[in-house]
Amino acid sequence: MERLPGFRDFYPEPLPHPDVWSADARQYIVERWRATARRYGFREYDGPPLEPLELFTTKSGEEIVGQLYNFIDKGERPVALRPEMTPTLARMIAAHERNYKKPIKWFAVPQLFRYERQQKGRLREHFQFNADIIGETSTAADAELIALLVDSLRSLGLSEADFVVRLSSRNAWQQFYAERNHDSAKAYDFFQTIDKLEREKPEVTQEKLRSFGFSIDEITAFIQRAEPTAELQQIVDNLAARGLSSFVKVDYQVIRGLAYYTGVVFEAFDRKGELRAIAGGGRYDNLINLISGGRVDLAALGFGIGDIVLLELLKARKLLPSFEAGIDVFVLIEDESLRNRSLALIQQLRDAGFSVEYSLTAAKPDKQFKRALELKSAFTGRLEADQVRLKNLRTREERLVPSSDVVSFLKNESRPA
Amino acid sequence: MERLPGFRDFYPEPLPHPDVWSADARQYIVERWRATARRYGFREYDGPPLEPLELFTTKSGEEIVGQLYNFIDKGERPVALRPEMTPTLARMIAAHERNYKKPIKWFAVPQLFRYERQQKGRLREHFQFNADIIGETSTAADAELIALLVDSLRSLGLSEADFVVRLSSRNAWQQFYAERNHDSAKAYDFFQTIDKLEREKPEVTQEKLRSFGFSIDEITAFIQRAEPTAELQQIVDNLAARGLSSFVKVDYQVIRGLAYYTGVVFEAFDRKGELRAIAGGGRYDNLINLISGGRVDLAALGFGIGDIVLLELLKARKLLPSFEAGIDVFVLIEDESLRNRSLALIQQLRDAGFSVEYSLTAAKPDKQFKRALELKSAFTGRLEADQVRLKNLRTREERLVPSSDVVSFLKNESRPA
Fold this sequence. Notes:
The structure is a homodimer. Chain A is α/β, with parallel strands linked by helices. Chain A contains 14 helices and 19 strands. Chain A has helices at residues 23-39, 53-60, 86-96, 139-154, 170-180, 187-195, 202-212, 216-223, 230-241, 287-291, 307-316, 339-351, 365-374, 406-413; strands at residues 10-11, 21-22, 43-44, 50-52, 70-72, 78-81, 104-108, 111-113, 125-134, 163-169, 248-250, 264-270, 279-283, 300-306, 329-332, 356-358, 379-384, 387-392, 398-402. In chain A, helix 1 packs antiparallel against helix 4 and helix 4 (139-154) crosses helix 9. Chain A starts with 9 loop residues before the first strand and ends with a helix.
């Protein structure tokens, strides 16, 4: 029996097959995201992977249904697996924002689902690091959020040589559009055309732009304008004060595909331009109002970093550590009459926080020792009367330590965390 | 807009409403589970929350469909949200077991879904700590797994006064049934009757038992038999050697509801008997064979601990810590001309691993200080020329430290982890 196409199995390393994913690498990335978010004072939240379908159609219109895992549940409710986290966040904020001081700084690491036509490398689920700031209109919040994005990627070893965050302004595009075209209902279609500029054939783009009343030259001139908007300049200056200038650049080509952005938007890309976007985000000052039916009106902004492109980049830059089993002690049981006392030793070591392995059944001494090496154990331990013979498998040094002193001996000896 | 009934929103503490759940408490529990699994040498895996429906019906028969979130996807595939992890694990093991040394010791922390009729306190999703040992028939594996279960609960502060693991044997029940009733097709219905013994009305149970050819007295005598089976005795002795005797007892009343158990089964309960089962598990030596269509035949056993009953118990025993924001430094910006240099300080501190907060916009000094207290910051820091005035908010001591020494000063001063 096979898993569904577009879904992933995560195995412990070393990986058994190129077609499966590393549970260790995923956990490593998620832990770095979490630690970075906490350094920035962000708190964790989570919501249901299954939501009322209406939560997503309210935000994105009925067109989105074609890309969802949606169905009618046994209570006759139209439901969908979440394709993104922001609507759930907006719903949760609208329900209980009064209990939290503003600005609210929250993060989550949800798994997200989209029914996309199968293409090479396109999956139907991914994990995403979502961080949002709610209740602050100042560009200081945009800068704080972008700094978190930069540091989340830096925490994985990526440098300014590896990625850049391209900053742009949906506001500026909105204004540019409105000066030439008064049909505001078509603005979003226009933005989508701009969003596809780098991927679409030039003749298709030109034709589309003409239908909105724009020439490609006008668009190029707008993108290449010399001056950033005042709000972008503030963000760039703020990031410069943090020493993060080299990680960002203003680039009006970025506009973001989603309908709900209202202000600054940004995307992170690999510097070589070989991969799809690593991350994207922006301001969505109207969404909470929309989701809450006008009950709650709070400025907001956020970003998402997906795990898939990021893993590609980390692999390409050789920034993923090797994830060995790496236990602390392998207890050798060479005499079965010592098994019960060895179990007591194992329990004592595990209680003290060490990771401990041993052979569940009787096995030849050399086979046990080989297994200790395979598991990259730091030490082997073997009972001898009231003492334990500890062998450091790196230095090959041996020491006989009284049973009662084993824990303190290992705490002094063990590799620094 | 509301979340779906039976699903949970997880908020940062302090919780805004009794109807929502703590993201912090969940993360705390999951981290303890992970750390304990690693001490036992278990490696993490994960699989898709959405699987082919057939994966679950193969194992549990068509009856299970009534309890699933199942639907037809846009590719005309019958699919279901996973109600348990074991079929996914069996599928993954069957696919790639040859690449892993036996016994395989793996764990996962999946979210699981069941469409149950809404009842008070019954939810439609929960998180579960799953741990399994694959490829070992010896009862030494059963003991190792049960020890992990005990220590996973102990790692949260629960003691032998709080919970007990009741051990039983599906084998013994199977044999007892077969001696009196030769209709093996009905054995599973009989087991289900036994499983409901504690919850069902006595007259209903008696009637059902009669239909299988058993009297209630025979059942009572079997449950109260003096001698554990040989395999249970081995497990009890093994756990005694680890010093874990007080956490387990043999209790033949336990039989487990699932069809696929083949040997030892067990459930963990609170000692006061006020809550539903905290955890359950057992041997399922035939399941991988079944799921793999006879391709792979490996003995296996596992358990699951759900987060919901466990949280109830931890709350009742007051074993959940308080989850405050708890940052390291709140940087006070009392003079806006120092904002840029303060941002550089903030970046320096975060780069060094400290969690740092500050006011995104200009605010009165006393408001900033109040916020630092609310966030339970360990220190405030304020730039003064080339120095930083650090105030320990617990002792109220102040120190002027050169900017270049702030990180090392705080590393020495900061609260032990």
